[in-house]
Amino acid sequence: MAGHGTDGHPHGADRLCEAGDRVYSRAVRRGRLPRREAERVPCLLELALLHPDPDDMDWLVPTAPQEVMTRLLRGMYDEVSASQRRVGSAVEAFEWYAGLGRQVPPSPVAAEGPAIRVLDGLARIQAAMDEATQACTTEVLTVQPGGIRREAELSEGLHRATALRGRGVRMRDLYTHVARHGHGLLSYLELMGDAVQARTLDEVIERLILFDRTVAFIPANAERTMALELRHPALVEYLGTVFERLWRLAIPLTAPLPDTGIEGISHREQSIAALLAEGHQDAVIAERLGISVRTCRAHIARLSETLGAASRTQLGVRIAQTGLDGFRGAAVTLPGRGSPSGR
Questions:
Q1: Spatial contact of 72 and 1, defined as CB atoms under 8 Å apart
Q2: How wide is the angle at C-alpha 156 spanned by C-alphas 154 and 159, nearest 5°?
C-alpha cells in the first residue's frame, strides 16, 4: 500500500510517519484542525487522510478511520488478486516453454553441463579438476603465477600430471622467471620428462588450467578458495589464444635469461625498473614478479646504488636515462663509470 506521499514523507496510509500520526490523531479527536498545523505533514493531504473543510478553507477535516480501513482492505484485496493473476500467467508461460523444450534436442553445451560453473571450496575444485583430468586426452596448458612453487603445491597436482603422462597427454606450463630458482620445480620437470615443457616470463596472468581446449579453470577470488569452471567455447578459445601468445613470448626453462647489457643490473632488476617507471608501488611490483616485498626492496636498493641514485625520484630519472623504463637497446654510461655499456 506504499507508494503515495511526497519526497519528504515516502509512505502509504498503512504506515504513517511519526509527525503524520500525531497530526491525524489530533484531527480525529478534535474533528478538524487549522490548515497551518498540517503544513509539516503534506503526506496527509496526499493520502487523502485530511481534506479542506468546505465551510471554511482555512480548516482541515479528517477522513473517518473506518473509511481509511476500508480503503486499505480494498487495496490489499486488489494486490492479492493481481498477484494471483500473475502467478496464473507465469504457470501458463512455464507450461508453454516446457512444451517447446521437449520438442528441441539439447545442444552439446547443455548436454555437457553449464557453460560457467562456480566451484566453492577446495574439495569441489579438486573434484572438478580430477574429473577434467580423467577426461583429458590431448593436452593441458597451465599458467602458474606466484614465483617459486612450494613443494606442497607441486605434490598436490603430481598425481594428475602422472596420470596424464601415462595416457600420452602433452603438458605446457608457464611460470614467472623467479620460479627458475625453485628446486622443487626442477625435480618435478625432471620426473615428468618429455611430457612437460616449461617456459618463463617476467609476469604472467592469473592461474589458468586448460584441458583439451574444452574446459578451463580460473580463480574466482583472491584466496583461491573459489574457482570458475568454464566450458563456453568462445571463452575457452579466448583463453587458449592468450596462452599461445604468452608462450611465444616466454623463454624456455632450459635457456638462460637474456643479459641486460648493463653491468651490475640483472634481468629481474631490469623488470623492476620498468615497473617502477610505470609508477607501481613496491607491493604491486613484488606480486606481479612473484617475489616478496622484502626481496623487491633489496633489488631496488641495488638498482639505486648501481645507477647512482640517492632518492626514489632520482632513481626514476636514472631509469629513464638508461632506457630501463622501456627496455630500449641504446648504449648507456652509468654515473661514476667511464665506459659505456651496450645492451
A1: yes
A2: 100
Task: Give the integer Cα–Cα distance in Å for 152 and 123.
Answer: 16
Contacts of 51 (CB under 8 A, 6+ apart): 45, 60, 61, 63
Q: How far apart are CA 319 and CA 325, in angstroms?
A: 6
pLDDT in tens, the chain (343 residues): 444 444 455 677 777 888 888 898 888 898 888 988 888 888 888 888 888 888 888 899 998 888 888 887 777 777 777 777 777 777 777 667 777 766 666 555 444 557 889 999 999 999 999 999 999 999 999 998 877 766 666 666 677 888 899 899 999 999 888 888 777 777 888 888 889 999 998 888 889 999 999 999 999 988 889 999 999 999 999 999 999 999 999 999 888 887 767 777 877 788 888 888 888 888 888 888 878 889 889 888 888 888 888 888 888 888 887 777 765 333 333 444 333 333 3
Distance between CA 121 and CA 223 in Å, rounded?
A: 11
Burial-class residue 227 by CB neighbours within 10 Å (0-12, 13-18, 19+). buried
CB 230 within 8 A of CB 236: yes
DSSP state of 193: G
CB neighbours of residue 149 within 10 Å = 21
The whole-angstrom distance between residue 125's C-alpha and the CA centroid of its chain comes to 18
- 119: cell is 566451484
Cα separation of 134 and 21, whole Å? Answer: 69
- The secondary structure of 243-307, three-state, reads HHHHHHHCEECCCCCCCCCCCCCCHHHHHHHHHHHCCCCHHHHHHHHCCCHHHHHHHHHHHHHHH
**Residue 137 in grid coordinates:** 586426452
Distance from the Cα of residue 211 to its chain's centroid: 22
d(CA 230, CA 220): 11
How far, in Å, CA of 289 to CA of 337, rounded? 29
